[in-house]
Amino acid sequence: MRPLAQSPTSTILILCAAEGLALIGVFAFPALLPTFRTAWTLSNADAGWIAGIYFLGYALAVPVLTSLTDRLDARRVFLAGAALCALANGAFGLLAEGLWSGMLFRFLGGVGLAGVYMPGLKALVDRVTGAARARAISFYTASFSLGTMLSFLIIGEMGERFGWRPAFIASAVAAGLGFLLVLGLAPVPPQSGRPAGGLLDFRPVLRNRPAMGYILGYFAHMWELFTYRAWVVAFLAFAQSRDPAPWGWSPTSVATISALVAMAASLGGADLALRFDRRRVCALAMLASGGTALVFGLSAALPYWLAAVAAVLYSGLIQIDSAALTTGAMLEASEGRQGATVALHSLLGFSAAFFGPLSQGAILDAVGGAGLLSAWVVAFAVNGVIGLLGPLALLWSRRQPALRVSS
CB–CB of 3/187 below 8 Å? Predict the structure, then answer.
């Protein structure tokens, strides 16, 4: 395919669409978690490992793959990542048989995601300049929720109708379509040239206190967000089982709606961050979502439809600060260190995305199992406590006003 020149608008649309297609497989396992727990006889901890190891693969690969985008065209990294996503999803659908093979293919899928998500953002930043850049970053980041919505919707529906293997193969096809979209982008070398220092030299980023506030806040945000996403279908299935006359919408349908609301919330939060103080907007959003998490588990004691409404509301609150945090880290990045900044941002964030779902499974097993209301209450309350650490990081990172020197 011969690359064509694109306008900024078409570039944004192409990269957002390609991101969404490549992300369809990201939540394929959580979308079908009740099915896999039965079919593979998984404990909650086992399920947490398979759900979380995807993001361990991401976290281990992202420092190298994203830092490379300071040295070569991020489009090339995206293409390699999308290809690996397609291969890993297809292999899971064709070959996975249980805990260990499932973990292997999900890990490889996470490595593929490391070549897609933040390198795609860097490809966007290298192609869109000026005042449009901040809003373009927000649209791209919010499109992660579009991919999440499609993941729960497509995988959930296909899994129910045709089985989980065809559902995973469909996610492989989607990643391949994302590859083809980005293949049509014209190459653009990094604008900043080759940065000084080693490939994984994060010391300049660590010294950038304003950027580090957003990065540490993102860690807390991602712990809370991905724990919710990994376990929401299982939680809603538990809530549904307690209701003798449950509402007709399935847990995966509710998760799909939650992801759609989350995307709107992310875009709304990004717009608020452009109009008002970015750190304050993010901190208030984190306080709201973390506070909600402290009591979210109790919603399973209510009629199922109220638990579903609570899940949608909680999803929106978690996501308000998502695009605003990533945009803040990018805007505070030093010139020539955008790739390294988003690499560290993503490394810490997706490390949290690994440990969060894993810890939730361990907590559920430790306090009585996923069949107890009290276990869900404790597990989500712990998640909320982690989320409430984010505002502290943002408070620490505020720029200090210049000291007055009296004459």
Answer: yes
* Residue 72, CA distances (Å) to 65, 137, 243, 333, 381 in order: 10, 20, 55, 18, 43
Domain assignment present for residue 3? The answer is no
pLDDT tens digits, 368-378: 888 899 999 99
Q: Flag whether 201 is in a domain.
A: no
Q: What gap in Å lies between CA 55 and CA 111, rounded to an integer?
A: 8
Q: For residues 375 and 122, what is the distance between their CA atoms, to the nearest angstrom?
A: 41
* CA 47/CA 103 separation, integer angstroms: 10
Cα Rg for the chain, rounded, in angstroms? 20
Q: Where are the beta strands (DSSP E) in 354-401?
A: none
3-state secondary structure of 371: coil
Tokens representing residue 258 in the block = 């939650």
Distance CA 350, CA 290 (A): 18
- For residue 161, give the amino acid letter: R
Do the domain assignments include residue 46?
Answer: yes
Question: What residue numbers bound the domain in which 142 lies?
Answer: 8-183+209-396
- Local structure of residue 6 (DSSP, 8 states): -
Cα dihedral sign for 338, 272, 317, 157?
A: negative
- Please report, for the domain that includes residue 127, its CATH number: 1.20.1250.20
Residue 232 has pLDDT above 70, yes or no: yes
Per the structure, the count of domains in the chain is 1
pLDDT at position 403 is 36
Residue 72 lies in a domain: yes
Phi-psi region of 369 (alpha: psi -120 to 50; beta: other; left: phi over 0): left
Burial label, 184 (beta-carbon count in 10 A; 0-12, 13-18, 19+)? middle
Strands (E), 14-56: none
